[in-house]
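For the sake of transparency, this paper describes our internal protein records without simplification. The tokens are whole numbers drawn from a learned vocabulary of local backbone shapes. One such record is reproduced below, unchanged from the form in which we store it.

. . .
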Amino acid sequence: MKRITLAIEGMTCSACSNGLEKYLNKQNGVINCNVNLVMANATIDYDENILNQEKLEKYVRQAGFQSGGIFKEIKLEQENIKAKRKLVLFTILTIILMYISMGHMLNLPILDIVNPHKNPLVYASTLLILTILFLIYGYDILKSGYKNLIHKMPNMDTLISIGVISSFLYSLYGVYRIISGDSSYVSNLYFESSSMVIYFVKLGRYLDGINKDKTKEAIQKLVEITPNQATLEIDGKEQIITLDEIKKGNILISKPGEKIAVDGEIIEGKTHLDESFITGESKPVMKKEGEKVIAGSLNYDGFIKYKAEKIGKESTVSEIVRLVIEASNSKAPIAKIADTISGYFVPTVLILAILTFVIYLLLGFSLFTSLSTFVTILVVACPCSLGLATPLAMVVSEGVCIKKGILVKKNEILETASKIDTIVFDKTGTLTYGKLKISKIYNYSNLDDKDLLQIVGSIEKKSTHPIEKAFSEYMEQEKLVPLEVVNFKNITGLGVKAEIKGQEYILGNRKIVDKYSIKNDYLKDEQDLSSKGNSIVYVIRNKKIIALIGVNDVVRDNAKDVIEKLKEQKIESIMLTGDNEITAQAIGKELGITKIIANVLPKEKVEIINKLKKEQKRVMMCGDGINDSPALASSHIGVSPKSSTDIALDSSDVVLLKNDLNSIINLIHISKNTIKNIKQNLFWAFFYNILMIPIAMGILKPLGISINPMIASIAMILSSILVITNALRLNYQKEK
């Protein structure tokens, strides 16, 4: 067995990737094939005694796509200028086409030369030429529809192709009748319907292509987390080298403000490292000799030497990249209701039309009458309303989502969200704000809280400890001016000491109380702060504790209400965090979340998501960090607040633009309404076809009831108007 990964060109939707995958898996010699729409490649395991690259690429072409040769790497494509220009051009042509075809109906001023009543032939010819341009523009859609029909896998492209070609052929017949002298057919031209369908499909696919490029950018950003250079120590001398030059066992140096270059182990020194992008832990962690460091971690305040252990593809960051790619590859596309119906509807209509044509000929009807009936069936069964039923409701609902501060990247999400029964929340930055804030103050002094924090903030401002940011942020918010600090001294591992206005202050952790033998009468308050996951700053003045300040990651506004609303909808909430057990339990208790999984790494998060999926759970993952990106990609729906890292935002399917968790409740509500609306649309579209196709076949002719292509076209438009009107009702959804 041999494996090859080919770059595939021409895939535009999940139906394309599914169709290609099924086609390749049918071929003799192909053991297994996996087509990745996001990465635009196909990984094929095959028998090298039967097949080779040339034959495999031939099969790709037969399926209607192109092979770009061996897939080498992730290529971040620049915005496709050519595609954008085409879209702009056809947007202009669409406006012109609609103005010419509909302007006279709306009493708009229109040139006599293209007035259907004054120059019907010029009018018809103009529409014909414009529509031919649209058919060329949408050739890939028509080709896909044809290929999928040939391979017995009719999909939305097949529906679109039949609708477009049916309308075009009937209109073309109308042009022939106008040329023959029957100008009444000028009212029976429906070129614009063919053109409009192609335009909106191409617009949707252009936007979808942008989203796929963002996914590739997310993966590239993961790679860029690590620095480009590192400091290597050789014989006691420092040398700057690139990451590619690092070898296992090399001794590397990291100074304050620098990022760790590769995974390794500290052999000298200690420092605080920000590993939040991997662990989710909001507070920088102290690392000392013998402990592991992760590539991409930020060195806050120490000088360390570490030995390189994992480089290149072995690194933690590379592992996350692999997990994201695998997740995007294995995520099963959601089956579209319209595609399911089309699988039966399209071949049934074709068979009925052909049978009717043959029966009419056998019964002695003229070729013209038989052909007219055949066209009438195709026109009346044109799946425009069926094709509009799903995408139009999706487009309207996406607009509603945007108005409510919810950015939905893929149409499928609005279908899947209605089925969610489990939501997995990351803690740091999702349920909480992800930044250290002053959470509670026990003030035992004669100072008010504001004056106390001005003193503490002024001293902390001179500190290099990460906790300083909480106080600096408070002073900025309250517009407090730092006081003059003298005799500042850092007490390593314990805290700091300084004087303000002649009084000595000591700030630090519990150990500093023991070091200076300070009497501690506030153990109960201390325990209260610790139980809620706070880091405690002891404020000591003149050998006496005057305050305890709890610094913690604060829970987001209304997070508790959201968890309660989810419980009411019988949706389970799970907290999944890389943070420690004590902090996680404290936050969970505050929010009312009972199922808490702490101390997990990115790989373990993915494993837990996949385990839930194997239990037939419909899983939504809500996270904000780099460490969450594989889990976001693996879940049925990945959700990130706008304040998240770029990589989390790009890996997610939904972005909460208001940073408001209540948007999740709104998303689920909108999704349920959308699915209900789509089912209504499909019912009316399908009911229309069931009603009109028998009439088009002539079953009611004995009763004097029959229709021609013109009436069939009007009926087709009316069914589309009904679907459009129903879909627009989604604009009036209320917030939950």
User: Anything to note?
Assistant: The domain at 432-555 is CATH 3.40.1110.10 (Calcium-transporting ATPase, cytoplasmic domain N).
